[in-house]
Records
---
Amino acid sequence: MDQDQEETQIITLRRFELSDVDDYMVWASDDRVTAFCRWDSYTNKEDLLRYMQEVVLPHPWYRAICLDGQPIGALSVELGVGCDRCKGELGYVLAAGHWGKGYATAAVKTVVASIFKEVEGLERVEALVLVENKGSQRVLEKAGFKREGVLRKTMVLKGRTVDLVMFSFISTDPLVD
Amino acid sequence: MQQEQQHHSPPAVSLRPFSLSESDVAAVMTWASDPRVTRFQRRGPFTSKDDARRYIADHILPHPWYRAICVGGRRVVGSITVKPAGAERHRASIGYRLAYDYWGRGIATAALGAAVSAVSEEWPDLERLEAVADVENPASQRVLEKAGFRREGVLRKYVMLKGESRDVVMYSLLATDNKL
């Protein structure tokens, strides 16, 4: 229990800066990380800089997951536009060398503890996880998300249609300590 | 409110595109002005024929797949829509609404069957059709189940309905479910 608390304290979220590109490249170029992502591993820094400039920096909710202040992963919430302002979709990646230590769980807990106060009208944060990705499912369960069901063949991921497990955290759900 | 199906044979249901004819405008008004029908629809109730006319022109005619539900080859009693999720058309979502007087006769179920057949042919890459029904709309949940859709779970506060977030039941029908 003490160990969990110690790790929770040293995981923080902040906005990215272009100077984070080398740290970002560590996970963005790793096939182990991108296997579960909709995008392919980055092979050069210029492409990643362009992505950071065009997407990451201007994004309303894109954060660096930091360990002792250094980025070890990324987390974003895509906010619903138009009709469904009540929901946002959470996504996150973590450098493979930091898997299995509770860091992603700590980062997700931080998000749900603050985002509903920050984003007006937001009531639901959802996350879709590959059925095979048990690690990520555990992260969400430990952060207090509720498993709602499996959406069959709901997404095309790198050329194949996959089943995704839907999780959600509602603004009135209890925060896990 | 709902009547048990009284007919022994399934209703003769067909689908066709809408037009801006006066009779189609009047048909849309039949259900779109009825709060019992629009309770679980994003729009409505409409209060004037101009609302319906504008809706046909601005929303129905440009829509990727919007059809009138006809009974007996003539009378328009509802509408059914299929909206692709993205450019690839591997996934699409279905919505439907029926004039109140025609509830409980299997018409929506038949319309769903006709729509599923049609889009499966028109979009060969289609693998998943999905539909949501409000948790407080068991009639619509039954229609989807009778049409062969599988219940996947309750998605909490998933859609906005007239300014309020709603819990819905998610249903899906896969191309592989439909194998004869």
Note: Chain A touches chain B at residues 83-87, 123-124, 126, 146, 148-156, 161, 166, 168, 170 (CB under 8 Å).
---
Amino acid sequence: MAMSSSKVHPHSTDAGRSESPDVPTYSNGLDLMHTNTALQESATTPEISLVIDSLKLKVDADRCAYIMKRMEENRNKLAEITRTHHKLSTERRNLGIINGDKVDNLLTRRQKEAIDMQSRVDISFGSSSNSQEDEYASVILLGSGIAVKNSVRPIHLPKVEKLPPYTTWIFMDRNQRMTEDQSVVGRRRIYYDRNGGEALICSDSEEEIINDEEDKKEFVDSEDNIIRGCCLVALVKLEHPILSLIYWPSACLESLVKSRLVIVQSPAVSPFLALAYGEMKYHQHFIQARHEALSSRQNVIESFDFNSFLDKDLEAAQDSFDNLFCRRCLVSVIVICVMFLVLVLYFLQPLNLLFLLWQIFDCKLHGCSQDLIFPAEKLTWDGPDEESVPCGPHCYLQVQKLEATPSMQLNTERTPALSSDASGVLVSRGKSNGPSLRRRSKPCKNGSIASNTQNVTESSDSETRPVHDVIPYHSPLPHKNKRGGKSGTHQRNSKHVANHVVTAMKRTQRNVASDSDSVASGSPGSRDREFLSNSLKESKEASSWSPKAKSSSMRRSRRKDSLVPDDHKSLQVQVPYPLVKKEDVSTCRKEVTDFKSWRTLEKALFEKGLEMFGRNRLVHHFDDLVHEGSGLHISSFFSLGSLKMELVIFYYSLLCLIARNLLGGLKTCSEVFHVLKCYENKPSSKGSDSTNSLGDGCRVDSNENMGLAQRRRSRFLRRRNRVRRLKYTSKSAAYHSMRKRISDKKDMPCRQYKPCGCQSACGDDCSCLKNGTTCEKYCGCPKTCKNRFRGCHCAKSQCGSRQCPCYAANRECDPDVCRHCWISCGDGSLGTPGRKGDNYECKNMKLLLKQQQRVLLGRSDISGWGAFLKNTVPKHEYLGEYTGELISHYEADKRGKIYDRENSSFLFNLNDQYVLDACRKGDKLKFANHSPVLMVAGDHRVGIFAKERISAGEELFYDYRYEPDQAPAWAKKPEDSGSKKEDAAPSSGRAKKLA
Amino acid sequence: MTKITLGCEPAVGSLAPSKKRDYRVTNRLQEGKRPIYAVVFNFIDSRYYNVFATVGGNRVTVYQCLEGGVIAVLQSYIDEDKDESFYTVSWACDADGTPLLVAGGINGIIRVIDAGNEKIHKSFVGHGDSVNEIRTQALRPSLVLSASKDESVRLWNVQTGICILIFAGAGGHRNEVLSVDFHPSDIYRIASCGMDNTVKIWSMKEFWTYVERSFTWEELPSQFPTKYVQFPVLIASIHTNYVDCIRWLGDFILSKVNDCLIQSVDNEFILWEPKMKEQSPGEGTVDILQKYPVPECDIWFIKLSCDFHYNTAAIVGKISDDVDLEAYIIQATEKGKYLYGNCRLAPLLSLQGYLMSSPNLPSGKLPCRLTEAQYSVAVKTEPFGVGIQSQPHSL
């Protein structure tokens, strides 16, 4: 037991218990208390231990009974299984007999012969088969101790050439990060040398991370029972010496037991305790213990409650959506796009589902450790408009027509003004700020309210943002917030907003028809958080004007608050708009309950749908929307807080999309519509202390993700810690690693690129600058950033020499960055972009485009596996990429020790953070030795190029894996290995199978 | 090692050999000078319940048990490659009931022998290193699993000669796979264990279409779209050393760990129940029900096998040098219970009357990991090993 002890307690030495010295240092008062209660303790100690013993016995007995029961159950099950097996084998017998009549089964025949022979032998009293020794007998009987050899004619199995040995590996066409459970750190591996001796290679003892498991011990019922029993018998027994009497098989910390004790007894027993021992000191102690307990419980809650919020399934689903934007997932993007297109065609609806291919550096799947960064410039997609055709009998449009008929007139009255205004906003914005701004500022739209969204940042953003006054009805919306304004102005502004709310409220209360669809929530972009936190206070005031609405949304907001207690700052403002009329409230309630009856996954899908489709429906459709009377139900803006996305418009005709694509078959469109309606009413009216439920969802989501990541990590740590401390042989301790370390010839390894989040030109605090890397297109900074790698401006065919800046910098050209480097799509049948023309293709993008040579695997002429080229390649031709697992240097050191013992190393230094290991994952060029590390699309990758002309069928290199003499060959003659790319990679499984 | 919380401790049994002689030797036989590595009865076809096969060196031999302890040699096969050393053998059969023998060894080539026609049926080349164990799916006896030193487990269709699945990759074993077993009733589930100290439980439910396709595959077997199963449904790190052997006992798993290298008392059988979480594969818990420390077992790579009814499992314990290469046939005294065993495998069969054991090979001639033993031990896997001296410690 690990006990943090410091003080020897007087009474414990008297008692002479071994565990008694372990009394933690408390404050003086508590210490005094210890001495006070010492007498009582020592008196009751035997009692306690008796109780504990009996409780333990009971636990054991329960366990035994449980095991007995389980074994019995299993035995019954097994009996059934064996019956089945027996039945099957009997059936096979019958099958065999049927066939055996036709075809003589030799085994059966021999069986019969043996039986015949035995009876004959018995009759003739002969001893076994000696009489037939001159010839090979068909069957031989063995009495005792007779050699089998020479007895029966052996049937020869023709020799089959065996494969050169290899370890199973997975083909990978691009590098992947190591999954955590593949780490060898902290694990033990035993290596055999050829002489049959064993050597143990394992992690060093210092690797064993300090056991943090105690913090996470989960108490099982039986343990609780024991604790409870203890404290019922002897209430004083919060003291350590007693607690340590409880024998824990799993060595958990005293303090934990203590805190658990408090938890266990706190609801019922603690008042009683307090009464019985009414001393203040005891209270002190108790309170302290409770603090511990609470804090530990807090952790538990923090880590677990978020998990329960969303279904796990959805998280997986979300992964795939988030992947859409990851540069590493672009392949899957295409696949998914195609799938979506098929889906769209299937439903015969022109679905304008195009993904904004923001290139995010890494997605969750690929171990994104940093915040997602959105570049300061990016393209948005202007898609065609879609019509609002009811998608089916249950489409919301049908429902809505019924509801909206009275309001139609009003809407149509309103629309001209709206549209003109909205388009005006769009136009003016486009003029004044250019495309770079569009992404930031999206007009908020509401049925009857305009909300101002001010994007105000502390950053030195050069763009002034226009205020979007969307609704003409509320003319007084002219607060043009200056960037960098003080919070006071914001407060004033938001007061204005609040005023508007009131006026709007009054107005809209007159508008019977419009209440149902009027909701406003302004949500700021990620940069507006400061502003938000200020304005939140204001909007709180505003929300106090709408107590009714607040109460109506209480239920939900309470839940949210409990889940996300501290994310006010990062959440968006909502302009409360409590115009829900009584009937609306009632319907809304109904819908809420409906929504509650949705399954978690459905809910989450719904929210995801809002997020997804809403995100894609950007401002561009706004005008058209306005013109559609029935389509004018734009309501809420969802700030994708966690994703740091911008304001997003959502409108109802997307409901069909959501219903079809995400909740396919689960909910109809109209159901979604209903839910959405109250979904919007609710968050908008619930006041600013609660949060937009969608944004909230996102928020929680992100928190959850973080929590998950942390938990995942901690679980891994725990698992590692579980590995017993190992004993090490001296051999493993000081083994020199012969690891294949190939970086550039310079000693300086490349630095791993990590995009910076600068929103303006990178200054001294830019992470890229600090890290020593250039800024890439994934960075947040604008293109004008001085630290950017600007690509090349090479004319045709010049990228193949050092004159090309990309080439000189060991980079591949990037069509996004370089001016003239591009490649036409497909085989040209789709048409080439004319302006760049000339059929020119950049020669410095081979890795990016995967223009690799066909590499064949075969038996090497010398030994092991060899790699061969299918076609003749000229000098400097790109052969392929060396792929593998991306592992840390630390991990690589550990693996290197193992690999060195096996005389095979697939490790390849990539940059300062990662090493490539192609041992279990890789491609056929696993054994390439000396290759340049190139920077391709933000990644370091290894390309292999021919240094001389290699003719077809020529072996690239051969495996010296099993010839230790040649093992350090790479060290001896790197230029040679570089010229003829050697490869000794094992073949893929299928190629080797024989028929 | 998994922490065992209070109230979840396993019952500890004892494997001390029973004084009562349940079995007696009825016959002994000798096959050449090379060790016998495996012996297996044919549970697949009830015609051949009394037929067993052994492998040793480059030989595969088929025997039959007759009345009175007599054993008949039925067939003998010799691999022409003298370097071949078969480690494992298993019975299988194809669709029309022809008995097949599947053997594998140091060369990594799996030999499928048609015992009904006494000729080679197929040879599977694919494993990159030696094959450590082959098991047959009792419900579909055309499917065999092979565990190999190349860190993979492969699923083969012996009828068509197709490698259907490869269990390796990102979540796979990181060292030799020593043992593998099919779940007796859940056809999708297998378990494997190996020198990376882990036991992995895999599910091929998602890949079952490929299994079905393999039966009707018309083209060349090499054209079959072999799939990689990269992620097991459960990784159990309950052992701290090599896990030599693993067997499903119903839904429980009996696994054996051997810790001869580090001199500790880590040699034990553990009977445990895997508790998978369907929602999140890879995360599951393990409930260790019983533990049997193995006394004086200083060898490893021992396999254990169970009788037809899974009532008894057998392994072989201590090593000794002074006995010849022999196989013992022991007839059980207890009626209806017969035990067959050898150095690595001790299969049990309840129908016939023999226990066969081929222990005691000189260890000098063997690879160090394959050694033989002096006596065989029966473990009854009833609660706390009824019939053997094994009691839970706490009662």
Note: The two ends of chain B are 25 Å apart (CA to CA).
